[in-house]
Amino acid sequence: MHRGMHRGRGRAQRGDVRAAVLRLLADEPMHGYQLMQAIAERTGGIWRPSPGAIYPTIAQLEDEGLVTVDKDGGRKLVSLTDAGREYLADPANQAVDPFAARTPEAGAPDLRAAVRDLQNAVRAVAVSGDDALIASAYKTLIDTRKSLYLLLAAADDDSDET
């Protein structure tokens, strides 16, 4: 497997969200937003599930009797039930840690932060630059995209030789 593959890019599988929610609730009850934040925190920001992934998962777990959802000051607090604790304790349900594959490697560059910084720079050029500067920035972005694809192609060539 190439270095960097399966490191939280793209959409998580439904089972991953489910397993993550259950594991987090085993520690303490949380609101949906807290669950999203805890997953992002536990993975160093690499995996940030959306409300569209979290809330349907909570509803499904509630339907299965594994969690309860109670009103807490206008928000909904999600807690693990006894059945949920039994589910987690069952060795048959000890799936792969949903956080393991999405933990940033020590010393690995933060590509997401670099992209955010790049977006800020592009936005500044778009707002403040004249036509020539914008055209130059556009060419730089196109060249950068090509360079990134060339890096991937070179990595594929290296892996084919091993």
Describe this structure in words.
This protein is mainly alpha-helical and 162 residues long. It is 59% helix and 9% strand. The protein is built from six helices and three strands. Strand 2 (67-72) and strand 3 form a beta hairpin. Helix 1 packs across helix 3.
What are the salient characteristics of this protein?
three-stranded antiparallel beta sheet; elongated; mainly alpha; disordered N terminus; 6 helices; Arc Repressor Mutant, subunit A; 162 residues
Average pLDDT reading: 82
In percent, how much strand structure appears in the residues?
5-15%
Label the CATH architecture of the largest domain: Orthogonal Bundle
Number of domains: 2
CATH-assigned fold name of the largest domain: Arc Repressor Mutant, subunit A
Number of helices: 6
- CA-to-CA gap between the ends? 11 Å
| Outline | elongated
Q: Which series of helices and strands comes N to C?
A: HEHHEEHHH
